[in-house]
Specification:
With 78 residues, the protein is an alpha+beta fold. Helices cover 32% and strands 14% of the residues. It contains 3 helices and 2 strands, in the order ααββα. It has a two-stranded antiparallel sheet.
């Protein structure tokens, strides 16, 4: 995921959630502590956190850039 973030030059922060058992294309790795706490079931999962630290928007799976920008802007204006 970090490579994806760097490759596309994304300017928003990304959270890496390492676990004690890394996965591969052939076998799933163990869930990390954030994955467990937020009950992440799909990758990627997007969370937009507002200035007060609350989850303002959440979505599983790939999302269009326009939707992500819209939700980021909406949260920034709130």
């Amino acid at each position: 995921m970090f490579a994806f973030h760097r490759y596309f030059g994304l300017t928003y922060p990304v959270l890496l959630d390492p676990s004690s058992h890394a996965g591969s294309f052939h076998s799933a790795g163990a869930a990390g502590p954030v994955t467990n706490a937020y009950k992440v079931e799909a990758f990627p999962t997007f969370y937009i956190v507002d200035a007060k630290g609350r989850i303002a928007w959440r979505s599983d799976g790939e999302q269009p850039d326009a939707l992500l920008r819209q939700e980021l802007n909406r949260t920034a204006r709130a």
